[in-house]
Amino acid sequence: MTLTNVLEVDGVVKSFGGFKALNGVSLKVSQGEIVGLVGPNGCGKTTLVNVVSGIYSCDGGSVRLGGKDVTHLPAHKRVLFGVNRTFQVPKPFKDMTVQENVELAWNFGGRHGSLRDSVLGTTGLEDLKDRVTSTLNTAQQKRLDLARALATNPQVLFVDELGAGLNPSELSDLAEMLRGISKLNVALIVVEHLMGFLEALTTRVVVLEAGKEIFEGNIKDAIRDKKVVEVFLGG
Ligand code: ADP
């Protein structure tokens, strides 16, 4: 069986001044796959998310979405090619209802795709759709962030530390939700510090250190890998 690569990142370099935050990172992700992106603080995870989603332009390498080269497109255009992300600090419009926020995202995403009608159900927000966003609790706001990203009909969705600050039952709900999203053929790249959460969720993890990939594979092998252990334990 050949799986389609919806995302192909090839040798991406991103510098801030003279400092290379990403130093030749490559990554391929196939349709509906769930990949974990891990590594110590400052290793370049968020920079990679920003470079792929188009928030930052890169200084070398290329980004292809669904086979199309989007390396030089800005973020709002890349959304139309099927990539989106959640934010570590969710930024919905607080005075709008849940449904209005999702509608707005759908408009932003070019008003296409079949996910629109299932977004509230998939993210467990159906019963909260008329609530004003500012009245939601943290876990609900995170679900809304996921719903807004999903409403743009992504093929590739970066989920950036959505697990932080959630209790075990909320975490297990989140994992279930993400599994449901991947079944809709959306590839998920989950940036997360919580290894247990990733172990239950991902088929593959990519470990970054100092802007370079040092491991790619199954999480059980990652936690036995000498280099990965050294990076995480500072050995
Ligand atoms: P992570 O998400 O893995 O914690 P980041 O991608 O946020 O790491 O950061 C990687 C490195 O790039 C860090 O050293 C960080 O200080 C630096 N960096 C990230 N964004 C900027 C920026 N806008 N300007 C300057 N340096 C940055």
UniProtKB/TrEMBL annotation:
Alphabetized CDD domains for the sequence: ABC_Mj1267_LivG_branched
Q: Name one GO molecular function term.
A: ATP binding
The UniProt entry, under SMART domains, shows: AAA
Q: Does the keyword Cell membrane apply?
A: no
Q: Which UniProt keywords apply?
A: ATP-binding, Nucleotide-binding, Transport
ABC transporter domain segment(s)? 7-235
Kindly state one GO CC term assigned in the UniProt record.
plasma membrane
| Pfam families reported for this sequence | ABC_tran (PF00005)
Enumerate the InterPro entries for this protein: AAA+_ATPase (IPR003593), ABC_AA/LPS_Transport (IPR051120), ABC_transporter-like_ATP-bd (IPR003439), P-loop_NTPase (IPR027417)
What is this protein called in UniProt? Answer: Branched-chain amino acid transport system ATP-binding protein
